[in-house]
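Troubleshooting entry. The earlier prediction with 4'-deoxy-4'-aminopyridoxal-5'-phosphate gave an output that would not parse, so I re-checked the input for stray whitespace and re-submitted. Clean input:
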Amino acid sequence: MSTSQNLFDVAAIRAEFPVLQQKIANKPLIYFDNAATTQKPLSVINAITDFYMQCNANVHRGAHTLADEATRRYEQSRDKVANFINAYDRSEVLWTRGTTEAINIVANGMAQRLKPGDEILVTEMEHHANLVTWQQACLRSGAVLKVCPIYEDGSLNTGMFVKLLTPNTKLVALPHVSNALGTINPIKTLTAQAKNVNALVLIDGAQGIAHGGVNVREIGCDFYAFSGHKIFGPTGIGVLWGKAELLQAWPVWQTGGEMIAEVSYQSATWGGLPNRLEAGTPNIAGAIGLGAAIDWFNRIELTALQAHEQRLIQHATALAREFSGMQLVGTAGTKIGVMSFNLKDCHPTDVGFLLDKQGIAIRTGAHCAQPLMKRLGLPGTARTSFSLYNTMDEIDQFFNALHKVKQMLT
Ligand code: PMP
């Protein structure tokens, strides 16, 4: 695979994704639902298959060769994640089911630490995973949930963000990138501002992880959460990264095997990081698959990847602006390749259904962001989300298909 921007070889990348080789509705599949989940390259599929075919065993109980090999591959993946996000230490990388579980682990601990009158600050663009969790933590603790507004273009009102920070703000929970709008938030600056009032900062990185060199030390946050399936890895595996000094004392989440130090019939003590927050047999194959996904992703030069995505979103946006009756939702200055839209007099669900009949996969609805849709006065949107294997030609075909959809619906 090329590492140069000009030679970014989309055809070679596409060839590595078996799922993209098929036809839907007799047309080559156009997969524009990458914000929901990304497709998996062969190397990831093979890493999972190889694990089950060659060394399936439980980890950390190694009385035999298979268990040793399973543990080696599983823990090697933790090293890969730690390097990928520039963690201070591998023990700061906790395996979770995904972003949602990672946020819940932090919220569970926060709920036990917060007092009435404490504040949590989120934004109007939250996915439910980074909103309902904090609502529940506030209900349990008596803390107050504050919501930072966005502008009409879908960018964060950063002036209000600073105003909403107070000495009572104990935690700021922010999306790195909005799944519904594509907005990239200036998380480094926002984190520094939150630190001025000594708040903890959690970044919901579900959409950020696959788009740009996440470096947790540089961001300066306390927690960064992401899902493997958004970065070409499997579902059912994700990561909570947190600073060791916080995680070491974080209230335990689930109890059982793996996470203990000493157990008697009456009581137990907890083990060290990362195991104290990883009860039970983990998703071993998932972690190994995520490690393979990171290896695969690391082969692609980041600037080339970002340039490719920017070309796609700019091309799509330009065509959308010429498309009569098309309303773009989320036009912030800094965006990933997400284009949310509505067609005049057409319900987004019908748009998605009729595009599927032409072999094009998109997402429609509220995108797990019902309050955001209400805030924007919309029933939902149709959302195309592009990834590194998408092409300009696919975008042209999408607009041709959309013309047909419009003719059918209006
Ligand atoms: N936050 C954002 C911004 C997301 O896009 C998603 C997934 N759509 C999540 C959180 C939740 O991720 P998961 O369902 O993988 O736990």
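This one parsed fine. Residues 167 and 272 are 32 Å apart (CA to CA).
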